[in-house]
Design goal:
CATH architecture of the largest domain: 3-Layer(aba) Sandwich
Strand order of the largest sheet: 1-3-2-4-5-8-9
Number of strands: 9
Structural class: alpha/beta
Distance between the termini: 38 Å
Helix content: 40-55%
CATH class of the largest domain: Alpha Beta
Order of helices and strands: EEHHEHEHEHHHHEEHEHEHH
Mean pLDDT: 81
């Protein structure tokens, strides 16, 4: 069973919202749905294994969740929508757009997974650790315990033991984690890197909004800006004082930005 929120005007326009890891539709988008649904239908699902949805039918992976979102839209006879994704959900949305270019009227991604050279996320977290540890941050201590592991399975087990995350999130991490053999770096790395293909989205004429939290402790800065520069006609916005979830931390500013972008995308249409 898939639980989802279905709100807003039946104007022929639809926005599909995809949450991040260890979240749900209500947690990720609770401060945004009312504002975004004034002129369009807004659908926000709980991905399998999250929120009130049932368990995944296979091991969760980026590919599995991208297929799930496509099937979800097909089941509701939605051929084209404004796709909006946060973190892991941003990676899912990018995967969908690259795999099914016609399903996106526009694409908005917030601190998305998958726009980073696989080792750069780990390197960024390691660079952040001295600051976090100086602050006495429990998050910094926890990341240190994960990244010191010698192989992927140990890292995942350490992550499970130190962070309160759902089983589906752990399984997703397991599908994305591999071993890095670069000397001097933690051996844990992530697989997905959409950067070499981002130009395809712009070439097809999908309008894109890239949003970055300026104080995101998870993903390295500048990579979202770099991805935006690869997509012709895209918009980049930096929430300087927000962390990993600008839509929750600065909802009024976020809602105004995205509503304006969707309105302009509708006016301009596909290029």
């Amino acid at each position: 069973m898939t639980h989802f929120l279905d709100v807003g005007a039946r104007s022929g326009l639809t926005a599909v919202l995809v949450h991040g890891m260890d979240s749900s539709a209500e947690e990720a988008w609770g401060k945004n749905i009312a504002a975004l649904s004034k002129e369009r239908r807004v659908l926000a699902m709980d991905l399998p294994g999250f929120g009130r949805s049932g368990n995944p039918t296979e091991i969760p992976s980026l590919e599995y969740y991208a297929r799930f979102v496509k099937t979800f839209m097909d089941s509701l006879r939605i051929e084209c929508a404004d796709l909006i994704g946060h973190s892991m959900g941003g990676g899912i949305v990018i995967g969908n757009v690259l795999g099914h270019l016609k399903m996106a009227r526009s694409m908005t991604v917030i601190d998305p997974y998958g726009l980073y050279e696989p080792e750069s996320v780990v390197r960024h977290i390691m660079d952040m650790l001295p600051v976090e540890l100086d602050r006495g941050s429990r998050r910094g201590v926890r990341w240190l315990g994960v990244l010191k592991r010698e192989n992927a399975s140990e890292a995942i087990e350490a992550f499970k033991n130190t962070f309160d995350v759902r089983k589906a999130a752990l399984e997703f991490i397991g599908s994305e984690v591999t071993v890095c053999e670069s000397s001097g770096l933690p051996r844990v790395r992530f697989k997905t890197d959409f950067l070499p293909r981002m130009h395809e989205i712009g070439e097809y004429g999908v309008r894109c909004l890239f949003i970055e939290g300026g104080e995101d402790p998870i993903f390295p800065r500048s990579q979202v800006r770099r991805a935006a520069a690869m997509v012709e006609g895209s918009v980049f916005y930096d929430f300087r004082h927000a962390g990993h979830s600008p839509q929750r931390e600065s909802p009024y500013e976020f809602n105004m930005l995205v509503a304006s972008f969707l309105k302009e995308s509708l006016r301009l249409g596909r290029s």
